Amino acid sequence: MSGLCRIGVAIDGDLLDQFDALLARQGYPNRSEAFRDLIRDALVREQVSDPESESVGTLTLVYDHHVRQLADKLTDLQHDHYREIISTLHVHMDHDNCLEVLVLRGRAGAIQQIADRLISTKGVKHGRLTLTSVD
Known about the structure:
Elements: H1 13-26, H2 31-48, E1 54-64, H3 70-80, E2 85-92, E3 97-107, H4 108-119, E4 124-133
Antiparallel strand pairs: 1-3, 1-4, 2-3
């Protein structure tokens, strides 16, 4: 860290009250740490918005394993991208539903395309990609 800088922020009182309540629920020790996290998050989102940026991500999928050949389709898609998919976790949620978490690394655009293909596979109930920078 290059040294702390103080800044002033003008903010509506009601908005500040809501922000303080959020900080309390999330366990922030002070507003400064929360502002730093918000700034870092915005910078990471900006960085991974560049499709060429080197990124890592997690893709969470929930699907019904009874859907005909779905598990095979998902596995085939994952094998097509073995360079980007560096790890997977498979969890049996109940008799019908499975959860998979994939860890991916590569260009943000490529990771997004892989995630889109997996999420849009017939039988996948829900999917969400979270990207972050490697820097």
